[in-house]
Amino acid sequence: MVEKHIKHLLYNHDCVIIPDFGGLITRYVPARINPVKHTLVPPSKKIAFNEKLVLNDGLLISTIAYTNNITKEEARQLVMSFVHEVRNRLDSEQRFELTDIGVFKYNHERKLVFDYTEGDNLLEASFGLPEIVARPIRHEEPAVLRTLIKERQAAEAAPARKPFKARLKRAYHVAAGLALTGLVGATLYMLSLQTDYNLSSLNPISLINGDKQAAAEQTAITVPVQNEATLKQDAGIGAFDAAEAGIENEAEAWGDASSSTSDFETQYAADEIVNDKDEPVAEVAAPSVASTTVSGKDGRFYIITGGYARMLNAEFSRQEIAEFGHEAKVLEPGKGSRLFKVSVADFASAEEAQAAMNTYRQTFGDNIWVFNN
After folding, report:
1. Cβ proximity of 296 and 303 under 8 Å
2. What would you give as a GO molecular function for this chain, any one (predicted)?
3. Are the C-beta atoms of 40 and 134 separated by less than 8 Å?
4. How far apart are alpha carbons 60 and 5 in whole angstroms?
5. What gap in Å lies between CA 93 and CA 294, rounded to an integer?
6. 204-372 CATH
7. pLDDT in tens, the chain (373 residues)
8. Are 115 and 105 in contact (CB under 8 A)?
9. Burial 45-62 (b: 16+ CB within 10 A, else e)
10. In this structure, are residues 338 and 309 in contact, taking their beta carbons and an 8 Å threshold?
């Protein structure tokens, strides 16, 4: 009987307190659409429970006494009996159900919780409103329109064949590219056959991953001697051009040219002299000459003025420097290098070579460098 009065009060009130047990609170829920069931639900009330609302406000007891025409004391006894029964059911069965309202039960912390059961709509304004089923409307295209759409999709999916002129133009571009590639390859091959060129020097990767000193040697330029004897330099340059032209016309004449040029290397020999009586005389010892060519590693530090791809060019530069009183030498190419380096002086330590750099820069410019052989 108490359950029936509680449900009736929830229609007209937002809160119904059960003395010494807790209060049931209603909350307005607006109309909503269920996208899965495709239904439209009218506005309603949702019920929650607060076990801290235990203070008797007299609403439930007064309603029971008035409806049943009994005294409030008798109505209070009925409510107390109902609360006692609810607690006994919770202790024994761990749950108690209020018909069409919800279920009371204990959680793992032994606290009373309430699960609302959506039954009758307790909102008077929505009394008698059912759930409305609203199925989505599917638009049906006419048969002619569907046929046109399919034909258009098939036409778009089919690959469009390019016209003959476009294909001919593309073939022309491909042929031109292949011809240009072959021409570049043939040019590089012809350059590689020349004695002055090396394909490895055209490779930019070698300048990055190779020895830094080798890169400096490949990019080195000849440092002109800045002196008052400019006329002698012009004469030396003319002789250099004439000699190099002769070398290109007769590549194997290097030995003859070097032997005929007294400025390159003075060779001395001891000849056996025979007298009238066919008696041999003592051999004449060759005078000692300082070597102007350095082969192999010697650990010394050289001040380099330039690097050359040919020994002939390096020897001409050495002779020009030697004319001004410097002990110039030619360093033969080491491992990983193809350049003949011309030095103006050499020292036993790097500190001595660096200390002399400023003095030699005044004559040979700022492009000289120290090389450890």
Report:
1. no
2. DNA binding
3. yes
4. 7
5. 110
6. 3.30.70.1070
7. 788 888 888 888 889 998 888 898 888 888 888 888 888 888 888 888 888 888 888 888 888 888 888 998 998 899 899 889 988 988 888 888 888 888 888 888 888 888 888 777 878 778 778 888 887 776 666 777 778 888 888 877 766 566 778 888 888 889 999 999 999 988 888 877 764 444 444 444 444 444 444 444 444 444 443 443 333 343 343 434 434 434 343 333 334 433 333 343 333 333 333 344 444 444 433 333 457 898 888 899 999 999 999 999 999 999 999 998 888 999 999 888 889 999 999 999 999 999 999 999 988 888 899 999 8
8. yes
9. bebebeeebeeeeeebbe
10. yes
Burial class of 364 by CB neighbour count within 10 A (0 to 12, 13 to 18, 19+): buried
Q: Which long-range contacts (CB under 8 A, 24 or more apart) does 241-245 make?
A: 243/312, 243/316, 244/310, 244/312, 244/313
244: CB partners within 8 A, 6+ apart: 310, 312, 313
Record the tokens describing residue 117, joined without a space.
């059961």
Residue length of the chain: 373
What is the torsion angle, in degrees rounded to the nearest 10, for the CA atoms of residue 170, residue 175, residue 180 and residue 186?
A: 160
Q: Which tokens hold the place of 6?
A: 């509680």
pTM, two decimals, is 0.35
Extents of the domains making up the chain:
2-133, 204-372
Rounded-to-integer distance, Cα 186 and Cα 178, Å: 12
β-sheet bridge partners, residue 276: none
Taking alpha carbons only, the member of 202, 201, 205 closest to residue 217 is 201
